[in-house]
C-alpha cells in the first residue's frame, strides 16, 4: 500500500481470490463484505449472541482505498474507548 513495496508484499492481496474455500474446508462459517452496507450486515451477524460457530469475516476494499482504510483503522484503534 501507498508506494511501499515491503508493505505491499505482506499486506495487500492483488488477486481476486477468497478464503471461502479454506473456510468451507474447516467447516467454519463465512461472511463477506464488499461495501459499507454488507459490512454492517456482516458485523451484526458476526456479533449475534446466538452465533455458535467459528466465523470468518472477509472484507474486500478497493485496491486504491486500502492504504487509507488501513491507516484509519490503526488511528481508530489508538483512540481511547
Verbal overview:
By secondary structure, this protein is α+β, with helices and mostly antiparallel strands. The chain is built from four helices and two strands; from the N terminus they run ααβαβα. The chain has helices at 5-11, 20-25, 36-46, 66-78, and strands at 29-33, 55-59. A two-stranded parallel ribbon has the order 1-2. α3 links the parallel β1 (29-33) and β2 (55-59). The longest helix has 13 residues, at 66-78.
In short:
The chain has 81 residues and is of the alpha+beta class.
Helix and strand arrangement:
Elements: H1 5-11, H2 20-25, E1 29-33, H3 36-46, E2 55-59, H4 66-78
Parallel strand pairs: 1-2
Radius of gyration: 15 Å
Beta-strand percent range? 5-15%
Strand element count: 2
Give the helices and strands as they follow along the chain.
HHEHEH
Determine the fraction of residues in helical runs and give it as a percent range. 40-55%
Biggest β-sheet strands, sense, barrel: 2 strands, parallel
Strand order of the largest sheet: 1-2
Supply database-style keywords.
2 strands, alpha+beta, two-stranded parallel ribbon
Amino acid at each position: 500500500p501507498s508506494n511501499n513495496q515491503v508493505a505491499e508484499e505482506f499486506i495487500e492481496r492483488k488477486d481476486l481470490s477468497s478464503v471461502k474455500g479454506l473456510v468451507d474446508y474447516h467447516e467454519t462459517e463465512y461472511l463477506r463484505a464488499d461495501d459499507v452496507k454488507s459490512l454492517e450486515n456482516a458485523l451484526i451477524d458476526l456479533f449475534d449472541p446466538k452465533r455458535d460457530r467459528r466465523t470468518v469475516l472477509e472484507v474486500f476494499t478497493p485496491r486504491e482505498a486500502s492504504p487509507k482504510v488501513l491507516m484509519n483503522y490503526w488511528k481508530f484503534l489508538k483512540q481511547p474507548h
